[in-house]
Amino acid sequence: MSAVEGRKRRIGLLGAGVVGGGVIELLRARGSELGLELARVAVKDRTKVRPEIPSEVPVGTIDEVLADPSIDAVVELIGGLEPALSAVRTALEVEKDVVTANKLLVAEYGGELRRLANERGAALRFEASVAGCLPIIEIIEAGLIFDRVERLFGILNGTTNFILTRCQRDGSTYEDALAEARAAGFAEADPTLDVSGRDTAQKLAILVGLVTGRPCAPSSIAVSGIEHLVPADHLAAEEVGCRIKLIASFVRTGEGGRARVAPTLVPSSSALGLTTDEYNAVEVECAHIGWQLHLGKGAGRMPTASAVIHDLITLDAARERSRETESKGRRPALDLAASDAWTARWLIRVPEENPAWPVSRIGAAFAAHGVEIVEYRRSRRAGVGTIVLSAETTKGAIDRVARDIAKLQGAVKIPVVLAMEPDA
Ligand SMILES: NC(=O)c1ccc[n+]([C@@H]2O[C@H](COP(=O)([O-])OP(=O)(O)OC[C@H]3O[C@@H](n4cnc5c(N)ncnc54)[C@H](OP(=O)(O)O)[C@@H]3O)[C@@H](O)[C@H]2O)c1
Question: Residue 424: what pLDDT?
Fold first, then answer.
């Protein structure tokens, strides 16, 4: 029961769109038993008829919600930076707790807002900002408090996972799969943030900040998206027993680590390989307890709304935890390795349009950069070309190999380089 001094916790809701509507529905259904009461709602278009909002709840502006002294907690479900950022700052300034699903806000301003919350004795919670209904933030902050996360691999974007699933399973082109994702309501009119990998990088930055206790800016994470993948890449992946997933990865190394977001080969039968459609999955490897897997719907009205409600009913415990963390002092930003220094095993696909060079010529490009070939095969599938798997080496070295292959006589198409991890 989430109560404030024997009464229900009064909620001011900023935004009543997809997720806000879900929160209203859950509060109507179970708010009373959870000790939560919807006090006010702010929307942009106040002329719109909103039968989902109970008639006794005033619908107005952000300022009206923030100025209401009876409101204990503000739920920010507007999205984007402004006016969301100013609203959250003001709410914390006047000592209201804040729950938000806004990954951009948390990834870019989380550190500042958490400090402000602590100064004011308020809580700032953001479970819904990463992986929808998966309680991954609660797990990292509370469930794994005794342990140390060494590695984290995640599928954190349902839109791209839906698109990649269609490409793998049905042989769809990227463009057709994107159109299908839009029709199914899984992709925005402008899907750039999702397909470029930047949405995933914002979520990864939040998780890395939590597992290391040090700030991690999304801009410090090297990112590549899924827009350039073609059906032949998926066929090549299948030929080596893998699927391509947009993987967010973090590996701790001493005081630093490496973090990246990239289309990555994972074994088809692995947990991440089997995470299909709009589902998200997060694997964490801890120093003491080993691997854990968390899997579920990463977005959508009810999965996201349920994470918001979780935050609202655990505000008191979260406030206490946050105070303890802050009392340990601020730590410098995490030192992330340059992307060229990442190591992995790699797949190079030399497109079919290039001449069928003898293995010795491709082998020479690998040898020139000290990279060992583990497997070499000419695919029989139309459009795929030659597949070469490397031993573990750096991204810098494998990119140099690919550049040399692109310079071979008669080359017309640049080789495709994909990382193989985890444990592919
Ligand atoms: N949708 C998902 O599946 C999902 C998943 C995870 C996280 N999130 C995050 O949740 C947040 C909300 O997403 P959403 O999909 O629910 O967005 P949405 O459907 O676009 O809803 C946004 C709401 O904010 C209101 N709003 C916009 N500008 C406003 C202003 N100046 N003053 C007051 N209200 C304003 C809109 O009012 P009107 O109704 O009048 O337009 C609308 O009710 C975002 O941060 C998003 O990243 C969403």
Answer: 43
Residue pair 138/144 in contact by the 8 Å Cβ criterion: no
What is the predicted pLDDT for the residue at 141?
87
- What distance in Å separates the CA atoms of residue 197 and residue 175, rounded to the nearest whole number? 16
Measured in whole angstroms, the distance separating CA 270 from the mean position of its chain's CA atoms is: 19
Are 222 and 249 in contact by the 8 Å Cβ rule? The answer is no
CB 268 within 8 A of CB 241: yes
% pLDDT > 90, the chain: 82
Contact 9, 99 (CB under 8 A): no
Residue with tokens 């259904």: 29
185 pLDDT exceeds 90?
no
Q: Does residue 60 have its Cβ closer than 6 Å to ligand 1?
A: no
Measured in Å, residue 114 CA sits from the centre of ligand 1 at 22
Strand partners, 345: 420
Residue among 43, 81, 125, 302 whose CB has most ligand 1 atoms within 8 A, to mutate: 43
Contact between residue 110 and residue 104 where contact means Cβ atoms under 8 Å apart: no
Structure tokens at 44: 């942009």
Helix/strand/coil (H, E, C) string of 285-340? Answer: EECCCEEEEEEEECCCHHHHHHHHHHHHHCHHHHHHHHHHHHHCCCCCCCCECCHH
Residue 45 Cβ < 6 Å to ligand 1: yes
pLDDT digits (tens, 9 = 90+) for 353-412: 999 999 999 999 999 999 999 999 999 999 999 999 999 999 999 999 999 999 999 999
- Please count the other Cβ atoms lying within 10 Å of the Cβ belonging to residue 21: 19
- Residue 375: beta bridge partners? 389
**DSSP state at residue 220:** G
Q: Please write the tens of the pLDDT for every residue from 229-245.
A: 999 999 999 999 999 99
Please tell me which residue in 8, 203, 297, 395 is annotated as part of the active site.
203
Q: How far is CA 272 from CA 250, 365, 388, 423, in A?
A: 15, 32, 23, 11
Say how far apart CA 40 and CA 13 lie, in whole Å. Answer: 6
| Separation between Cα atoms, residue 109 and residue 217, nearest integer Å | 9
